């Protein structure tokens, strides 16, 4: 179960998912990524350690943050449309 602090900062879509899971413990969820909103992605970015290892793509937190809004919008779109690869412009 999520803590009260987590529930306060959770995106509304995910919060609805938590509530449904509590009501229907045997229920199934499909496409949970579509419930993640932009503020949740930004909070996740901000919680990352600055000295963490680079990602699979070789990008550091600092590099990702240089175009944070664009990167998060792209990530959000990929989550909503189930695309794994970023759009390269």
In terms of topology, how is this protein built?
Blueprint: H1 4-9, H2 12-23, H3 38-47, H4 61-65, H5 68-81
Task: Describe this structure as you would to a colleague.
Helix content is 53%, strand content 0%. It has helices spanning 4-9, 12-23, 38-47, 61-65, 68-81. The chain is globular and about 40 Å long. The termini are far apart. The mean pLDDT is 83.
Overview features:
mainly alpha; 89 residues
Could you write a compact summary of the structure shown?
The chain has 89 residues and is mainly α. The protein has helices at residues 4-9, 12-23, 38-47, 61-65, 68-81. Helix content is 53%, strand content 0%.
Distance between the termini: 41 Å
Alpha-beta content class:
mainly alpha
Q: Give me the number of helical elements.
A: 5
**Beta-strand residue fraction:** under 5%
